[in-house]
Amino acid sequence: MTDDTNQSKATTHEELTLELNADVAEWCPLPSRIHRRLLAAGTYQLNETTQKREGRLYIYNLNGEIKKESKLFLNCATTYDLPGIFDLKWLPDNFSGCSIQSEQQPVIAAALADGSLRLLRVISKDHESGETVEIVETARVESPEGGMALSLDYCRCHGASDINFSATGGGDENLISSYSDGNLATHRLTSTGFTTLHDWKGHDLEAWTCSFDTWNPNIAFSGGDDCFFKGWDLRCNPNTEGASFSSAAAEAPSQLWVDRKSHSAGVCCIVSSPFQPHVVMTGSYDEKARLWDMRLGATKPLAVAEVGTGGGIWRLKWHPTDPNLLLAACMHGGFTILHINGAVGSVNVVERYPHQQTLAYGAGWCSEVGSDGTSVAATASFYDRLLHIWSPETVAKVDSM
Q: Which of 38-42, 107-111, 129-133, 164-168 comes out lowest in average pLDDT?
């Protein structure tokens, strides 16, 4: 990174070198203190000898008090070998009605290089020698077309009390996934695992990203290497027969709109604000983060602001308590913190974390924030295999929830 503008005085708590290239860092969103301090890190690497894409999942516990000038550190609870990991999501507490998840045994959904989605239960056990952690696979669904599973998202359903849920469309225990062959799929989680609701060709090139509208579970977004940003109505054509991917019963939802012109390179990430309805951010290989106003609904969203970050934006993560802050993994541009103002339509880079110099891919916020506004971020950089735990100089709002 050559530009020193907005270089931070962040506090680096710990630097860990993983065995394979690091690309995912995801904190558990469950509300109990023991769970929200769980960190999952994922890796991906091509084995040159076997030509297999290999990965490893790491589960860490965060220790220490979250406040200014406090020192934090990680303990590795366990590891678990998988195909190369592209994305990880802990299932949130609103999935607790599904018997796949229980309060004491959180579950991670993984998008993997072999094309599968897998649910992995994290089980803590007490023994005379102390507590141990075990990972058990509870369900999986394969992609029959041979595409790699690149991203996934779960339905959050904020403000959904006035939404008319479709019995087989949008819902509060649904996942959406995207694939390297341009396909997209939605799935319902049941006591027996995955039921595929939709399976369709969403993009002509890699579908790098997919997500739900946080405020309307019937709406989903996708972005691809074709530079297209698309909206989908999940109430249309859902599978009612519990079909697998290969069944013709799982069809395409209705395309609401497509933006073909705003991104000059592939769309890598799309995140709907958990604080403000109609606010969405996108990140692209064109090195710009864009702020969108979704109030035009079924016609097309409006890009109201953008900012250059110095690198292609692979991930964006909303801060857990501050509606104006996002953490961005900007590939060759490192890690940045963005400040957005949805009311006036602005987005700016306010801080750059200078201590990881190779491809910035993994990024996430710990959901526990100090009473003084101290936040904790985890970031994963690829070729140097580094996982960093750090607190930004930027102080977060803590009274927004």
A: 164-168
Split into its structural domains, the chain has a count of 1
Dihedral Cα 57, 63, 67, 70, nearest 10 deg: -110
C-alpha 275/C-alpha 290 separation (Å) is 17
Distances (CA, A) of 241 to 156, 195, 209, 234: 24, 9, 27, 16
Is residue 401 one of the residues assigned to a domain? no
Using CA atoms, how far residue 26 sits from 99, 131, 386, in Å, is: 22, 22, 14
Q: What pLDDT, on a 0 to 100 scale, did the predictor assign at position 160?
A: 42
Q: Which pLDDT score is estimated for 2?
A: 41
Residue 247 in this model has a pLDDT that exceeds 50: no
Host domain of residue 219: 11-391
The rounded distance, in Å, linking the Cα atoms of 193 and 195 is 7
CATH of residue 165's domain is: 2.130.10.10
Q: Tell me the average pLDDT of the chain.
A: 88
Residues 24 and 193: their CA atoms lie apart, in Å, by: 24
Q: Which residues pair with 362 in a beta bridge?
A: 380
Nearest to residue 283, comparing CAs of 343, 240, 227, 354?
Answer: 227
Q: Give the confidence band of 299 by pLDDT, cuts at 50, 70, 90.
A: confident
Written as six digits, the tokens of 306 are 């953008």
For residue 218, being part of any structural domain is answered with yes
Sheet of strand 149-154: strand arrangement: 149-154, 174-179, 183-190, 193-201
Is 2 a domain residue? no
* Residues 373, 271: Cα–Cα separation, whole Å: 23
Is 171's pLDDT higher than 70?
no
Is 225 a residue whose pLDDT tops 90? yes
- Name the strand (E) or helix (H) holding 36: helix 33-36
Q: What are phi and psi of 160, to 5 degrees?
A: -95, 10
Identify whether 398 is part of a domain.
Answer: no
